[in-house]
Amino acid sequence: MYWIKQHIRVCAALIIHETAARYGNKPGGYIWAILDPLAHVAMMTFMFQAIA
């Protein structure tokens, strides 16, 4: 069970590091890092709903 906690901590550290490297010095960078993928998922959802 310990390895799951360790894996989650390592993944979280890598995500924070990558986010800081890409968007850390820009205002709103962390918000954009979350909103950008969510916008893409929402767009694809609407497109597939329109097709179906």
Describe this structure in words.
The protein is mostly helical. The chain is flat and about 45 Å long. About 85% of the residues lie in helices and about 0% in strands. It has one domain (about 1-50).
The tally of domains stands at: 1
How confident is the prediction overall: mean pLDDT? 88
Number of helices: 2
Overall shape: it is: flat
> What share of the residues lie within helices?
over 70%
**What is the alpha-carbon Rg in Å?**
16 Å
Model regions low in confidence, pLDDT < 50 over at least 5 residues? none
How much β-strand is present in the residues?
under 5%
Distance between the termini: 42 Å
User: What is the number of E strands?
Assistant: 0
What order do the helices and strands come in, and which of them pair?
Layout: H1 2-23, H2 29-51
Helix pairs in contact: 1-2
In short:
With about 50 residues, the protein is an all-alpha fold. The protein contains two helices and no strands.
What characteristics describe this protein?
2 helices, mainly alpha
